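re: that chain from earlier
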Amino acid sequence: MTAVPEVPGVMLPAPAGRFRAVAEDETPEAEIAGLVRRCWAADGGLPLVVEPWFLRGRWFAAGTVRFAVRADDGALIGAAAVRPAADGPVITGLVDPAFRGRGIGGHLLDTALAAARAETLAAARAETLGPRPHTGADGALTPTEPGAAPAALGGGGGLSGSEGGDGSLDSASGGGLSGPEGGEGSPDSASGGDLPGPEGGAGGHDVTVESEGLTAGAGELFVARGLRRFFAEDVMRIGLGAEAAGLGAEAAGSGAAEAAVIRWPEGTELVEWSAGTAGRFHAVYAAAFRERPGFPDPPAAEWIAENAEDDDFRPAWSLLAVLPGIGDAGFVTAADGWIVQVGVLPVARGVGLGGALVRESLRRMTGAGAGEAWLCVNVDNPAAGLYRRLGFQEHGRRARYRRPGLDPDHDFFTG
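^ sequence. v structure.
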């Protein structure tokens, strides 16, 4: 077994039996990708985690600190990564499904938290004492004395994983999306957990753990380590085209067949997304979601650009519904394989408009040859019931946990 190397400023926890987390500078991307795929196949969650661009952003951003756990034959069976963000380090991690229940996940999490703690303390002290005297060529902190923090952690990500009951972290890797979102009349990015909002901590040096394939055991592990949930979404999927046609009577009884019949409120007119109509979409979005706690209320130009500049955005599947006596009343935005957002004005709710918009968008996806569609819905959003009636099924859960920030005058977490 390879000895655990010293990481400046990090006191590594005791190993999980014979398994140890080892800091690795050059973990092959193919090994991480294989681990991600195995975990996602077992746990579900966000399907984007298996995409190369997504994986690289979470595991291979500049300055990332990675820890690996390997079997006796050298095979990668667990990994964690720590990266910086504006308001504190973020952690992501996973354990091979065949090696769960041995405490590996808990050991990886403890190791990543130790590394994040060292970086957080360095950042807090830098604010108090001023910049450190030495940096690398890219501005990364360079340890200059025993006990100094490791080089600056990079990127955005978090701990994705599900946990076996004994403290092993058992899930797929991944990172965050600002969407996809779903839900009639409310955005699905609002807090779904114990904190009042995403800040939740004592300051600007919080530690965030991010999961794209959460299980009950993982949640228990995170809470046991002093982390509190501030966000959770269910990931849902529906088969389209040939898959939907082959589901038969059982699917029809579950509500999947409803997608074939679209019942619009009388007098409904549809408008597709375009440069000229995008501002109208934003106006309905803001009016529909403003009542939701934590609504970010982005400026129109920012929200429009986030949609229109996405290569996967599909204007022809993104629709605005206009009702007599109300005007612009509801909308759906869609991307390749995704229902991104659905919103309906309070005055227009209760007449089936949100469901009709989703059905029509799915119909257009199917006509373009799509075989499936996904969405994410906040765990406290009643719109999940609508999606189930349309034929969507749960495919895992994604969540965010946070440990409150550090007091720069003390070497301990304040929360």
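The first strand starts at residue 22 and ends at 24.
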